[in-house]
Amino acid sequence: MSDDTRTTAPSPEDALRSARLLARAEAAVMALFATRAYELGWTVRSKLSGILDHVALSCDAGHSTQVTPVTALHPKLGSTIVPAPAGGAFLMATGMTSLGAFPMALEECQHCARKRWEEAARASFAAYAIETDLRILADAASPNEYPAKDVRCLHGHEFTITAMNPRTPGRVPGITYGFTTGFDGAGDPCVTCRGISQTPKLVEFKHRAREQSVMILDVMSDRIAQTVRLCCVAGHLTSVGINTGLKRELLCARCSGVGVRPEPTVYYVVTDGATVKPGISSGDGRGRLDTHRSQHGLGQVRRLITDLPVGAAHDLERHVLDCLASQGIRPVIGSEYFDAAHIDRVLELADGWFAANLPNFPWTVTA
Ligand SMILES: [Zn+2]
Ligand SMILES: [Zn+2]
Ligand SMILES: [Zn+2]
After folding, report:
1. What are 42-83's pLDDT values in tens digits?
2. Sheet harboring 266-271: ordered strands across?
């Protein structure tokens, strides 16, 4: 039977031996504490006595803290140890919690650790910017005392960011830095890009644009109500609202056949006696002429030729406008409104073109 399991009352020798063992254990704890404090960069500022007595420590930068040697080594153990009634030694108290006010196990100086982290984070911000595709535009005014930069993300969003790398390992917990990413620095630093990636309709819109080789020309916001300009594979420049685009099979309005202008097959000349306007239109041309009459007062139709072959209306219009320009006749408004003094010239040019290009084409001359 060993000494440990003896159940008889301790002899005076046992009590003496036990007290000496405990004193030796206490000395070992004090030695371990001194070593640990030294390793962590602390200098002991007060006289070392018992393992449960507070010790003042200071770091090289002058920050100070107080611990007891036993909690410095093992906070949980510290909270379950009380001084032995005889003094000088210690014993374990089962379920003893009244000493719960012990600080945590000793660590390096948190002020200094934080400062070191900030310096490392600042130094690696440029690398972080490259890694996350941020283009640094300028120094920015910082809302806290930390450096800040105006940056632009790969998708064109501009914003101000704390110029520290949130992914630097060992960050001291705290929310004072104002990072746009999560606590561990994971995720896109651009809030707008994150907003877009969390909005299913915007994700779908971007996906379709990619699928259809449509270039989105505007910087997308994280709102569904936005309208963006597009350039499709056929080279059409159009604009579309997110919801409208998603309802169509193709994002490009012109490829979808929406709002495609019919080929002009009508040539006309209208006047109000003061101004003369030649122009082209489609269908029977009546809609355009009604607009001229009601909105511009150009009520007299001098020429109206419909059902022209494809391309003829454009050629005729170009011919008339070019000839007027070469003869020094300038429009009074826009590019097609001329002084009515030139009406005969305008009609003559059109009639001449018809005689030369479509001599047998049936057309009517209105007064
Ligand atoms: Zn310090
Ligand atoms: Zn962005
Ligand atoms: Zn198109």
Report:
1. 999 998 888 888 899 999 999 998 888 877 776 555 445 555
2. 338-339, 275-281, 266-271, 300-305, 364-365
Distance 264 CA to ligand 2 centre (A): 43
Q: Per the structure block, which two tokens stand in for 367? A: 């007064």
> DSSP letters of 143-201?
SSSS-EEEEE-TTS-EEEEESS-TTSTTPPS-STT--SS-TTS-S-S-HHHHHHHT-HH
The H-assigned helical ranges of the chain are: 12-39, 69-73, 75-78, 110-123, 125-131, 191-197, 200-211, 242-247, 286-296, 312-326, 343-357
| 23, 27, 52, 305 from 16: Cα distances, Å | 11, 17, 22, 128
Longest Cα separation, the chain: 140
β-pair partners for 181: none
Centre of ligand 1 to C-alpha 60, Å, is 6
Distance CA 197, CA 204 (A): 10
Give the tens place of pLDDT for each residue, 230-247. 999 888 888 899 999 999
Give the lowest-confidence range in 114-128, 229-243, 352-366. Answer: 352-366
Hey, CA dihedral for 42, 48, 52, 55, is it positive or negative? negative
Q: What is the pTM of this model?
A: 0.53
164 CB burial (10 A radius; 0-12, 13-18, 19+)? buried
Cα of 164 vs centre of ligand 2, distance in Å, is: 18
**CA 144 – ligand 1 centroid, Å:** 21
Q: Quick check: 65 and 45 in contact, CB under 8 A?
A: no
Answer for the pair 11, 80: CB distance below 8 angstroms, yes or no. Answer: no
Residue 88 has pLDDT above 50, yes or no: no
